[in-house]
Hints:
Largest sheet: 2 strands, antiparallel
Strand order of the largest sheet: 1-2
Low-confidence stretches: none
Helix content: 25-40%
Oligomer: single chain
Strand content: 5-15%
Order of helices and strands: EEH
Shape: flat
Amino acid sequence: MPDKPVPSDPTKPMSPRAVDGAVVVKDPPEAAMDLTADAAEISGLRLIDAADKARKRF
């Protein structure tokens, strides 16, 4: 029987980064993501920041 994937930690926000004009999120979950309100807010702010950097091609 295959091992079940370990569910992601709902308190851990995503860590997107800007790479060559694009926003990259390493190892995003395959299924829908469950986040706490705080983790979702932090993830959103990080995505906006990464998008800004990608546009500026940092």
